[in-house]
Structure formats: structure tokens, C-alpha cells
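#structure-requests
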Amino acid sequence: MSFAIRPCAPKDMKDIMRLVKEIAGIYNVPLGSLRTNVEELKKAGFGEQSWYECLVAEVPAEEKSKEGYTLIGYTLFSYTYSTWRGKNIYMDNLYVMPEFRGRRIGKALIEQAGEVAWRQGVSQLRMHVSSQKADVLSFIERRGGENLTDKDGWQLLRFPNEVLRRLAAESRF
């Protein structure tokens, strides 16, 4: 099987959104709860200020998916900063359609993201993995990823939108 990894382009956003919805389905996330859409992805990735970078995995037309797709995987990442480590990349998604797994496509995507990180001089690539996905955790660990929950006891936390709204309302600035 042949495939290519390349930077995503605005024309890919419909396929990226399709893959985002596939991920949501895997995790039983109602599609109505997704806040992104094709236009939001275009604006955030290719607008005045780019909020992320994205690489896609593509197969030739003769090797397309059962549904007829040639864009079959992606990774989306953004830059962050750590006061301890300096520049970082946070990988939000690394996804390959199930029928194309086991063909080193995910490996190629993470290697290319690693190359981008290295060229940008970042100190580390960070990501989160669901505790429901032991196979994904194993995949990441085989490539050198460290499980910070096990290693250092770090916990991943978030402030959802409604809490941000409350915090902003309580702010004294």
C-alpha cells in the first residue's frame, strides 16, 4: 500500500471534519456537542492567526476507502509554552481510519509531526490518550512517548466553556 503524508490545506477541511466526527463516534460523543465545523477549521487553521498545524495521510484513488475516501488520516497540533521546558507542541489528534491501521500510516504521521517539532526547536511533543484505548497508549509508548500519569503522577485537567464564562464574569480586570 502506498500513501503520502503532506501538510493539510483548506480544501482538506471537509475530510478533516469527517474524521473528527468518526473520532466522536468512537468515543460516543454526540455530534451535536461538537463546537467545530468546516468553516471554523478553515478559519482557525488558515485565517489571520493560525491556531494549529495539520498533516494528512492520503492514499491513491485506486486504494481509496470502502466509502471512496482518499484522505484517510491526520494529525492536528498546536504550539504551547512551558515555563520549565520552553516551546512545546500539543498534538490534539492522531487518527487513521480503522481499515487503514496496521500499515505504518500512524507511525509516519507521528514521525512527521516529530520532524516538524524538531525543526521548530521545541522541547517536547505532548498529547493525551484515553484510558479506554490501551492499544493507542501502547502505540505511543512504542514510539518513545512517556505516560506522565504513570511516570510523574500528572493529571490532565480542563476548564469547560461554562466555567470559563463564570471565571470571566468574576474577573476584576
